UniProtKB/TrEMBL annotation:
Domain VOC: 7-132, 153-271
UniProt entry keywords in alphabetical sequence: Plasmid
Full protein name: VOC family protein
A Pfam family this chain is assigned to: Glyoxalase
Superkingdom, natural source: Bacteria
Statement: the UniProt record of this protein carries the keyword Magnesium: no
Native organism: Ensifer adhaerens
């Protein structure tokens, strides 16, 4: 069993409108845009990152906004719900705020003893807020939401699967342990991990496969401290039979990817070097930053990419 993985690093999804996406995360949810860059493989598309002040691993939601992308179809083989942590007693504030802003899918529930508010993003994305008593992470409050209510970062993510068996086995190999089971959901946790260390497995044998599009999660990333730990994880996964990509430099972290038995794309990402490697902390996410291989395209991209500020 591995011990290098600390919990979630980031979650990357897709959208169809960059400006709407930016407004939702920075204004409605009050997160900080910590990086404005482009998709490495499709530089005519933004890659937008939202999180806490520094973009701390375990707080960062990222998006590829493909203009006029059709909506995805929910199903198995995907991350169904991305869940954020908020302070105890704040769900009433959030329910009123999101309703006023026109959010859909608002639903209160309690699961695993936690109060929760489900809601949908602009593209039908599956989100939830969960009240957490002792989340000591410092929230970003310059988005207009006070510290008494502001999002701390991720709480968990839920994977929708036709059969949880092989994926549960994989996650246990990655260092997760089963914490509880309830109503067809298995909850796993990384002991001693970061504050985003929970994964829920939702078994849905009668649901069809998901079809990706706007509102779908593209991949989910797990955090390791550094490249040395990442290489240890890569070797262990390959020795177990997984097809894992070479290490890829993503400017703000190094990444490896592999497809899980349940169909979800997993990434293992390093906590280094961080989002302040090319911008001062005070100005994260303000300027368009381009990967080295795309810097020659700046004039074209600046005229082509949708204005979001």
């Amino acid at each position: 069993m591995l011990n290098q993985i600390k919990g979630l690093h980031h979650v990357t999804s897709m959208a169809d409108d960059a400006r709407e996406n930016n407004l939702f995360f920075t204004k409605s949810l009050g997160l900080r845009r910590v990086k404005k860059t482009v998709n490495f493989d499709s530089p005519d598309v933004y890659h937008l990152y939202y999180g806490d002040e520094a973009g701390t691993p375990g707080t960062v939601m990222t998006y590829f906004p493909f203009p006029q992308m059709p909506r995805g179809r929910a199903g198995t083989g995907e991350v169904g719900t991305t869940v954020f942590s908020v302070p105890e007693g704040s769900l009433g504030f959030w329910k009123e705020r999101l309703a006023t802003l026109g959010a859909t899918g608002l639903k209160d529930e309690e699961t695993f003893g936690e109060k929760r508010l489900n809601f949908a993003g602009p593209d039908g994305d599956g989100f939830a807020l969960v009240e957490v008593r002792d989340d000591g992470r410092t929230p970003w409050t310059e988005g207009g939401i006070s510290a008494d209510h502001a999002i701390r970062g991720f709480h968990s993510a839920a994977l929708r699967l036709r059969d949880e068996g092989a994926t549960a086995e994989l996650l246990k190999f990655m260092g997760y342990e089963e914490l509880d089971r309830k109503d067809g959901v298995t909850r796993l946790i990384v002991p001693g991990g970061n504050d985003a260390r929970v994964i829920d497995l939702e078994t849905m044998p009668n649901i069809g496969r998901a079809s990706q599009g706007a509102g779908s999660v593209h991949h989910i990333a797990f955090a390791v401290d550094n490249r040395e730990k990442q290489l240890e994880v890569r070797k262990a996964l390959m020795d177990t039979g997984y097809q894992v990509t070479p290490v890829i430099d993503r400017d703000y972290f190094w990444a490896i990817y592999f497809r899980t038995p349940g169909g979800v794309l997993f990434e293992i990402a390093t906590n280094e070097p961080g989002f302040d490697r090319d911008e001062d902390l005070a100005h994260l996410g303000e300027a368009l930053k381009l990967p080295q291989q795309h810097k020659h395209l700046r004039p074209i991209l600046e005229s082509h990419l949708q204005k979001i500020d």
